[in-house]
Structure formats: C-alpha cells, structure tokens
Amino acid sequence: MSTSADHAAQRGLAEKLGIEPGMVVQVVGSDVESDVSVDQSLLADVAARTGTELLLTDDSDDVVDVVLLWWREDDGDLVDALVDSLTNLADNGVVWLLTPKAGRAGHVEPSDIDEAAPTAGLSSTRSTSAAPEWSGTRLVSPKASKGKSRH
What we know:
Strand order of the largest sheet: 1-2-3-5-4
CATH architecture: 3-Layer(aba) Sandwich
Radius of gyration: 15 Å
CATH superfamily: Vaccinia Virus protein VP39
Strand content: 25-35%
C-alpha cells in the first residue's frame, strides 16, 4: 500500500502498541465518544491501523484481539475491571491497560497494576508511553505466552 508512508506518523502510536491491520479492538473504561478524558488521537490511530471499527460497547459477542482498558485511580476495583476485560478476549489476545501518567490526575501506581494483574490471571509484559498523557501496560494471559492459538 502506498498509504503507509503518508500515514506513518498517524499510525505510530497504534504500531507502538502492536496493533496490526485487521485486528479487532474493544475499547473499555469510558464513554469514548464523548469523554475527553481518553486520548482521541490514539483511538483514531488504532482505528486507522486496524481498518476495522472499534468496539465501543461491553455487550458485544465478538472475539477481540486487543482490549484497550482506560483506567483511573478512582474508577473502582482494578481486578474486577481486568477480569471483565477478558470476557471477549481471544486466547492469544492482549489487554492494554491505559492509565494517566505520573503527576496527572487519576495516576495509578505501577505497584497497584503489578498487584492486580496476577489476581486477574494476567501478567505484565511491558510498559510504554501510549499517548502524551497516558501510559500503557501490556497484559497477557500466561496461557497466551505459551503460544496457544485462537479457537
């Protein structure tokens, strides 16, 4: 495709998160269509990169490759949110936990994530700057890291 050079900058954030064309991505943790407390440019990058429509509701039965879980310190129980995010996730899927960066309102301490993830049956594989105001923590099921395929 000749559009790859034209959109290289636009797709940079999505590529950083390992988002690939054709992936099905579910967005959880906010009313993303009206809430300015998520990064709209990241969502646009993900939609452009996948070429598919983002799933913005929790009531879908679609199997998803990636869940983008937007989370702030006062949003409730992180373990419950992580468990809920696994509902439609493919066996080899990834949860990106997106939290405000240090010093921003709603920041979640990395130790809280490290404590919640294993309780939800997930392990943290890496962290990155997902957007200007947001950090991303990549979480996978231990079974996914063993190469189990989708069914």
